[in-house]
Amino acid sequence: MTLPGYLAVDSGGSGLRVAVGVPGQPPSARGESGEPVRTGERGIDPGHLMAQLVPLARALTAEAGMGEPGTAVVGAAGFASLGDGLRAELPGALARELGVRKVALAADAITAYVGALGPRPGAVVAAGTGLIAIGTDLTGWRRADGWGHLLGDCGGGAWIGRAGLEAALRAHDGRDGGSADLLACAEKQFGPVRDLPARLYPRTDRPAMLASFAPQVAACAPRDPVAARILRAAARSIAESAAAVCPSAGEPEVALTGGLVRMGDPLLVPLREELAERLPHARQVAAEGDPLHGCVRIATELAKGNLTLPGEPRLLCVVIT
């Protein structure tokens, strides 16, 4: 007997990414919305998410020749702290609009973990504009950082970009710790650095603007010791977060996922060294997939009744209607 299909949804800063398919097979159709889900007084807005998801899901299931999906997994950025509205309303809304009977709601850190490692013990650092580490011994979850660009996200893209721009401004002022290379890159990208505060501070997307400078730091690092020190410090912070959540027993796996992977050796070489020093018992591996892949994996196991990942209401909750 053919199992009912699944609906996998990754909700992040660039909008919804959606896949539909049949458990045990690759996704039959994929799509995306391109508009981030709003947040309000109750956190992530379930009505806005559904308004985008329903037409997209119906179009994709029709394209795939599927009926109603029996299982849905929604991974959402900010779910741990802003997910009350989703927990209260989304399972019922998915049942009414799309016929879904099994729903898993997850933090994007969880879907990043499952996409990278699957249901195995270890630690995953999801590092893009921000940064969060998640780990499990398969009996519970531990998280570190993910506190946003003002309070944390240490070693993430916004953190690296901000440090690079500080070094550029130090060079502009003639203070110690400045980098002429980073100053030249900053003025090429943003214009005169004396105008940078007026351009940056009023924006609502400050983390993204800061993170947009991180690739310039990586590009300068092979020839510029200031940029290289910034990336070494970022690698140290990433390894500290991984060590805080990684199981201490056995031979757990540790992986990095997210946009920072694209920075290549200027970041990854010092990161491998820092991880080896802090987690000598862990095995460093490449991430197998992204958060949407993690949603698909969770949906497949939930549809089959084989989901073994530990549940925790603020990180991963399952509702059967």
What are the defining features of this structure?
globular; 12 helices; six-stranded mixed beta sheet; alpha/beta; 13 strands
Present the secondary structure layout:
Layout: E1 6-12, E2 15-21, E3 29-32, E4 39-40, E5 43-44, H1 46-64, E6 71-76, H2 79-82, H3 84-98, E7 102-107, H4 108-117, E8 122-127, E9 131-136, E10 141-145, H5 157-173, H6 180-190, H7 196-200, H8 206-211, H9 214-220, H10 225-245, E11 253-257, H11 265-278, E12 283-284, H12 291-304, E13 316-320
Parallel strand pairs: 1-6, 6-7, 8-11, 11-12
Antiparallel strand pairs: 1-2, 2-3, 4-5, 7-13, 8-9, 9-10
Helix pairs in contact: 1-3, 4-12, 5-6, 5-9, 5-10, 10-11
Report on the architecture of this protein.
- The longest helix has 21 residues.
- This protein is α/β, with parallel strands linked by helices and 321 residues long.
- A 6-stranded mixed sheet has the order 3-2-1-6-7-13, sandwiched between helices. Strands 10-9-8-11-12 form a 5-stranded mixed sheet, sandwiched between helices.
- 49% of the residues are buried.
- Helix 1 runs parallel beside helix 3, helix 4 crosses helix 12 and helix 10 crosses helix 11.
- The radius of gyration is 21 Å and the shape is globular.
- The protein contains 12 helices and 13 strands.
